Amino acid sequence: MGRPIKRTAGGLAAFAVMTGGMLAFAPQAGAETVNTQLKCDFSDPTVKAAMGNKDSVTGPQAFTVTGPPTAEPGSSIKLNIDPGVSPASSPLGTSVKVTPTVTFTAKYDGGSATVTAVGAAATLTLQAGAGIKVPAFAANVSVPAKAAGKLDLIPKGFGLKIEVINPPLTLNVPCAVTDAAAPAAYSVTLPAASTSGGSSTGTTTSGSTTTSGSTTSGSTTTSGSTTTSGSTTSGTTAGTGDTLPKTGPLDDALSMGLLGGTVGLLGIGGVLLATRRVRSSRNA
Fold it and tell me: Which residues of the chain, if any, have pLDDT below 50?
């Protein structure tokens, strides 16, 4: 029983070591090598003389680009770029400083833009008649602010700034990708475009108060109104010296009762007065 367990453990250990080795050699996210066709322009008289009086040169060039798997729109990402061997070559062996510039077409969901990666100057010793091999370099690239979804970087151009040390001379050699549909050298995932939105509406309530007064022929009128949030409450009070206030049914009943009581008292008073007169006439 002990040996099968040991064999199983040994097999798992070997598998783990093999898997770890495979992961160690796994490429960075977004890494891909693409082969393109470049045309380098030597139309500048100084460049043409230095490049052996050629007008241009065409040839293949491979680009390998690595970078982060995700990015944010409007941010800056760091790419590692290996431009391979340029079709441009020097007729003489000499020491130079070379500053590489790679231009990409950045395609994303709903649009595209042009981004540029500029490497640091590197000192090279050129071999006569051999293609210029620029070493791999790191460069920061700006992600378009409107980019969303998947972003593909497709090589568009490759420029070389060549500074000859002896004799002092600076040459700018532009090269353009001539492929009708060049493949992407690097892809990165971006957040999807946001479609949510929000709005808020506020209502302001205003109010006004108006008071006016006038005096005409012994009468005074005061009126006022207050308006709040579209509703109006108004009131009017009027007073006059010769106009009775309006009364209701209860007031009418009370008046009739008082009138009846008054009539009754007058009748009693008349009876008493007549009785006194009769008594006075008898006594006489």
Answer: 1-27, 195-255, 259, 263
Helices (H), the chain: 2-24, 45-50, 249-283
Residues in Cβ contact with 208 at an 8 Å cutoff, skipping those fewer than 6 apart: 226, 227
Rounded to whole angstroms, the Cα distance separating 58 from 176 reads 9
Summarize pLDDT for 140-156 with one digit per residue, the tens. 999 999 999 999 999 99
β-pairing, 56-66 vs 169-177, is unpaired
Cα gap 281→158, rounded to integer Å = 152
Per-residue pLDDT tens digits for 72-125 = 999 999 999 999 999 999 888 889 999 999 999 999 998 999 999 999 999 999
Integer CA distances (angstroms), 139 to 66, 76, 102, 135, 136, in order? 11, 10, 10, 13, 10
Please identify which residue in the block is written with the tokens 């009754």.
264
Averaged confidence pLDDT in the chain: 73
**H-run or E-run covering 35:** strand 32-41
The first and second tokens of residue 42, run together, are: 């030597």
Cis peptide bond upstream of 73, omega within 30:
no
Instruction: Give the predicted TM-score (pTM) of the model.
Output: 0.58
Q: How far apart are CA 157 and CA 159, in angstroms?
A: 7
Residues in the chain: 284
**Angle, CA 132 vertex, CA 42 and CA 180 arms, to 5°:** 65
Query: Would you say 127 and 120 are in contact if contact means Cβ atoms under 8 Å apart?
Result: no
